[in-house]
Structures are given as C-alpha cells and as structure tokens.
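Following the same procedure, backbone shapes were mapped to integers, yielding the entry below.
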Amino acid sequence: MSVEQQTAQILREIHDTRAGGAPADRLVVDCCAAAGAVGTSLTWCAAGAAPLTIAATPGVGMTLEQLSFVVGESPQSSSVSTNRIILRPLLDDGRAEWAGFSPEALRLGVRAVFAFPLRLGAINLGVLTLYRAVPGSLSDEQLGSALAYTAAATALLLDSGSGSGSGSGSGSGEHPEDLPAVLEDPFALQAEVHQATGMLAVQLGIDLSAALSLIRAHAYSADASIDSIARSVVARRLFIT
C-alpha cells in the first residue's frame, strides 16, 4: 500500500465516530501502535506563536510534550526550526543538544525519538513526534506508516480551521465512508492550499504563514471548507484582504 493510500485509510479510520474520541486523539494513539512507540504527540506551531498541543498519548507522550514547552529545546523545536525530519535512533548518544529534555526522556525510559514536520511547502504547521523504548531505527514499514500519519496529521490541521469542522471530529456521518471529501485526497488539498497561499502572499505583500492564517480565518468565518476557499482564491473568484 502506498503512502497516499495509507493516508486516506488513516483519515477514514480516525473520522469514524463509532470509535469515539476526537480524530486527533485517535491519530496519535493509532500512530503510536503502528510505530511501536511508547508515546506520540501532535503539536501545532505558527510563526511568532507558542506551540500548542493538539493531542498526545497519556503518560510519556503528554509528559514530554509538556516538558518540550517548558524547556524550549526538544526534538519538536528542532524539527520546527529546521523544517526537517529529526531521526535519533539512539537518544543517549552523547550529543549536547536538548540538555533540558533528554535526561528526563531517558528517565522515562525513552531510548529513541523521531520528529516529523507537518509541511505545506515552506510553511511548517507543526510536528508529529514518536518516542520508543528501544534504541534503533524505524523499520521501512514503520517509517512508511509514520510518513502516512504525518500526511494525515497535516491534512487534519489544515482542515481544522475551516467551517467544515472535520478536524474537530464533527463529521457529517457515523461511518468512515462519510469522511468529508476534502480529506479523501489530502495531497490534492495541500497542493490547492499551497497555491492559494502563495498567490495571496504575493497579492498582499505578506509572508506565507500570514497568508495561510487569512485563508483559514476566512474559511472559518464563512463556514466553508478550506479547499473551497483555496480554489476560489486560485480561480480569482475570491479576493481576501
């Protein structure tokens, strides 16, 4: 199964209201199991704003997410600042970085950590972080699953600011086949929003993060999906100021 197919399947499963709980909460729990991790967290980030925890697994995931916020140096912060995947198959490798984070993570039994940025072009929306109790790299299958969950998390965060409400678990039906159409193809969604963001940034002379915030705010105020707003911007049917 390709990453694209895995991503679509993940989105259908986490929006199945029969499972209970919010989609983001189900995403981190399912990702944790798929990666053989002991903790997983999903963090939203925006330029100039403090990180916001969207979801974290109980125990290790939530504890280290809170620690990351307090100390300000962590796999999450490194991934956000560099907009790159952070792979640390051996946390206790003698490196000086994350001096306020690593000792506590090791005390909790974490031996490897992996952080995946949620990217929309040059914009970093947040980070998905995995903690494992055994040292070593992710297997090819686990890495593929982590990338699929990262893509699903990106689509979830993109759509959560729109009026469609799919990111908050308020989908229109009780079954996974009722998943909002915008999330059936998350890669198409990202391409549309990326193009609209770039156009708006040029038109208004603002940076990409500010342009994306305007698109999401307009979607929310208009009670519309973010993809419909993006398509209208690209087609020049809608001018946001």
In short: Confidence is low (pLDDT under 50) at residues 162-184. The radius of gyration is 18 Å.
